[in-house]
Amino acid sequence: MVKPPTGGSEEGRVTPKRLKTAKDRTPSSQAWLSRQINDPFAAKARAHGYRSRAAYKLTELDDKLKLLRPGVRVIDLGLAPGGWTQVAIERGVTNIVGVDLLPVDPLPPAHILEMDFTDPACGPLLIELLGGPPDLVLSDMAPNTVGHRRTDHLRIMTLIETAADFAVSVLRPGGAFLSKAFQGGETHEIIGELNRRFDEVRHIKPKASRADSSEVYLVATGFKGR
Fold it and tell me: 192-207, pLDDT tens digit by residue?
């Protein structure tokens, strides 16, 4: 049985700041920039040197789950711009590989691939670079949305399913899978398969996930093996 999401309130209260100029910006661009300026997690990420505010989602999740530690092998799917890989390295992980469609600046000792995760050649190459099966598969991937609710839902569902299938096919026994999800974004088939394959499956909404977002994280721990 999947446990319901926990957590999710934003951290801190700040006096809202306004953009100095809206010239040549679309309304959506203005809204995004305003939200970034007033986002305490974005400010913390810049101060700490993290490449994205998403780093704080993983730090909170790992504080609860204790997945990142020296000696584990990690695959980071959709790592751009690299915030999650930064956190993994900061917490002692030295054997980590990541992949993204976008270019990512080096993050030694991580191996980084610029390619399509759904390319059949990608999975074997990740395992080769890692030197063996992973203990943890991370996925902060999100599809490009088109604004059509049904189409966007299908894209989200397909991406979660693809990442979950990959994790099940490569993880070591006892391993874990941690993936971005959205409330209502998975099918009963995906959850059912994860429940069969892992000891525990649940959703967690970290504080760094915006309160008005449907974003949650799907966590499957204790992989039972193939």
Answer: 999 999 999 999 998 8
Grouping H, G, I as helix, E, B as strand and the rest as coil, residue 224 is coil
Residue 103: count other Cβ atoms within 10 Å of its Cβ: 9
Whether 32 is covered by a domain: the verdict is no
pTM: 0.79
What pLDDT digit, counting tens, does each position of 12-38 carry?
333 334 445 545 555 544 544 445 445
Structural domain that includes position 83: 51-223
Residues noted as catalytic: 180
> DSSP states of the chain as a string?
-PBPP---PPP--------S--TT--HHHHHHHHHHHT-HHHHHHHHHT-SSTTHHHHHHHHHHH----TT-EEEEET-TT-HHHHHHHHTT--EEEEEESS-----TT-EEEES-TTSTTHHHHHHHHHTS--SEEEE---PPP-S-HHHHHHHHHHHHHHHHHHHHHHPPTT-EEEEEEETT-S-HHHHHHHHHHEEEEEEE--TTS-TT--EEEEEEEEE---
Total structural domains in the chain?
1
Residue 126 belongs to some domain of the structure: yes
Confirm whether 188 is domain-assigned. yes
Look up the CATH number of the domain holding residue 117.
Answer: 3.40.50.150
Q: Is residue 67 included in any domain, yes or no?
A: yes
